[in-house]
Amino acid sequence: MLIAGPCGTGKSHLAQSLGHAAARQGYDVLFITQTQLMASLRTAQAMSTYERRLQYLSKVSLLIIDDFGLKPLRPPEGEDFHNLIAERYERTATSLTSHLHFDEWGAAFAANKMIGAAILDRLRHGAYKLMLDGESYRALPPESEGSKPPLEKRRKAAINEV
Questions:
Q1: What is the pLDDT of residues 82-128, one digit of tens each?
Q2: Which conformational region is residue 111 in: left (phi greater than 0), alpha (psi within -120 to 50 degrees), or beta?
């Protein structure tokens, strides 16, 4: 599942909820940010445990990568990300969240557009895509609107009206 949308619209929350549901059904789940993922692979490379780390990440039943594209992938991160996605492709479930619109995901691979195209092709094949929109759940109401209920209550009210 690929989840995109502006900051604060619930992408990470939704991905974590899906991860919890999978874990309750007995699946192994790993929730990790793109930055943490790349750092763990760099550390594994430095400690000569890269292959073991890559195999672990390749076999987790559900890998949820949060904040994809928040920072561009620099060499050799693009190659590492490609290795991981290629190993997981059509074998295990992968979910990504991103604040970028789906059309902008290629920008994360500015250093190597060919690897980026290969990764995105694999990620998009057979994937469910969900685009979230709306106000941030974390947004503070303007002071002039102090009499309005909090955003969460306004959303619940809007849902109940439907």
A1: 999 999 999 999 999 999 999 899 888 877 888 889 999 999 999 99
A2: alpha
Specify the pTM.
0.83
Share of the chain above pLDDT 90, in %: 70
116-125 CB contacts, 8 Å cutoff, 24+ apart: 116/78, 118/82, 118/86, 119/78, 119/81, 119/82, 119/85, 122/85, 122/86, 122/89, 123/2, 123/85, 123/94, 123/96, 124/2, 125/89, 125/90
Helices 50-59 and 34-46: angle between axes, nearest 10 degrees: 140
